[in-house]
Please model this.
Amino acid sequence: MAYAVIPALLAMLVLVPSGFHKVEEGHVGVYFRGGALLTAVTQPGYHVMFPFLTRFENVQTTVQTDRVTNIPCGTSGGVLIEFESVEVVNRLRADMVYDTVKNYTTSYDRTWIFDKIHHEINQFCSSHTLQEVYIDLFDTLDENLAKALQRDCDVWAPGIQIIAIRVTKPRIPEAIRKNYEMMEAEKTKLLIATQHQKVVEKEAETTKRRATIEAQQQAEVSRISMEREINEMESRKKIAFIDDQMHLDTAKAHADSEFYRVMREAEANKIKLSPEYLQYVSMQSIGTNTKLYFGPSIPQFYSENSLSGVPSVAQMAAVDSNKPNFPKP
Model:
């Protein structure tokens, strides 16, 4: 009995460690028995399987980068070029691991990334010229490749997600490469000349703007000075107007006062110079008059001191001459 247990223990000691295995973090474990894929998919950690009958493989489910190298292709013009490297960043969804491995094995990336990149690169080169592949359309190549891979994966392998693609510049024949380098050198010279021209234009524009700003400042200073002078002239004009108004008011007051005085004097004279008073004055002037003329040729006598509008002494003498002349006794 003891002899039968010992071989069993030895077999367990050999077989059990062979059945233990570890699934790495970022991976899942898939199992094959007799070459057939089992439905069990295990998570990271230690697991047990039947040794010798079952084998397992780690399948990465985190982001990984597949690098496809040395991809030859021919352009539409017949020039043979080679892409040194194309890097594809991708990820396999954990819930689609079983379907993807069942359809395309654990080397699914060989079919849908490596081989697909070769196919798409050749399709692109064959439909474009060297100028388009190397210069004109090169900046859109990585985006177009990502779209093409993802489109086909969505149909045939939906568990594969294409995140990004990086494409290096292709290698072209040496003679053609030198021509492109010369062309790029000329473009660089032209770009430098253009930039220098822009710098000169910018400096000229800066100088012009500086001169414009200075002219505007001078014009503003002139405008302010002119406004100040105008304000001063307006102030002097207002002061002169006020002075003239004061003189005018003073002269008008004096004129009004003189007019009032003359009017009052005229009114007083009008009252004073009555006909009786004027006759009285006339009689007094006759007495003081030194020149009197008599004779038949002068029917009247007048006085040099006679007043206009007042009966003169001559008129009074004429009146007296009409009286009857009585003889003296």
